[in-house]
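Hi L.,

You mentioned the student needs an example of a multi-chain input paired with its predicted structure. This one should do, with 311 residues in total across all chains.
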Amino acid sequence: MIPRPLIIDCDPGVDDAIALLLALASPAEFDLLGVTTVAGNVPLSLTTANARRICHLAQRADVPVYAGCPRPLLRSLTTAEDIHGATGLQGAALPEPALPLPAQHAVAFLIEQFTTASAPITLATLGPLTNLAVALIQCPKIAQGIDRVVIMGGSLGGGNVTPAAEFNIYVDPHAAKVVVEAGLPLTMIGLDVTHQVVTTPERLTALENLGTPVGKAAAGMLRYYGQLDVERYGLAAPPLHDPCVVAYLLRPDLFTGRPMHLAIETEGSLCLGRTVANAYPTAAAPANATVIETVDAEGFYTLLTERLGKL
Ligand code: BDR
Ligand code: CA
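Structure written out for the whole complex:
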């Protein structure tokens, strides 16, 4: 099997960190060309340091991390320290990042990779879509170098930051609009899916029982993370959002979805950042995304624990 060329754009963030670990633990499936960071859960300086901390923890110094956009296109930055802690990785005591930070901007890296790749590259986005939107605006022909964009963001039902909007889309709805309207092969994994993947005490214990630095860091972060969501949504345990994207790329058979027409609300105040998905596309509004609806949660956690055990 030839590993799939992959770039991960993220804002670590606890669940971003778990997603990165899952990808870093899967070198047979992924040729991870780089990780790009964006402001989101915490400011850019922290998301960038955290991505480098996670690559170091996974002993993958070969994966470069590029810092991207420090704020959304039009709006001021909304962060989520209430979910991820002040550092973005609360619950894990990780040292200062040892890996160097290249001078190249994440947007320049994306454009370079997508325009020079010998084979189309998959892009996993786990945060606000600012970097990809800016890359598309600067250089529309990057579309030719993109195999598929798999987005954690949005929702078919309600939101998590507002009743209408999910965090990643809400933070930069204008960037999301640019991405959704770019005609790229797109897959959306929203809250409807990620709320099916909850970290029960048994699943957390399985990660802790790996007994490795990675298992301990993952369990430490997840023990802290997402408790607010449990109370707010009446879930059995905290949902795990971003690793769903990496799991989908590893095991699409664990997920089901349908083609839909996807649009982003950027005008209204009550519904700003809402993903409006039509499962019955029309000629005027044809399907422009595969929207994932279900996941096999047991299969997901078996995969996650098995892979993190390899690090
Ligand atoms: C998304 O928001 C962030 O807080 C998480 O990292 C995830 O990407 C879930 O709404
Ligand atoms: Ca994220």
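You could point out the following to them. Residues 10-11, 13, 15-16, 40-41, 126-127, 242 surround calcium ion (ligand 2) (CB under 6 Å). Residues 44-57 form the longest helix (14 residues).

Best wishes,
N.
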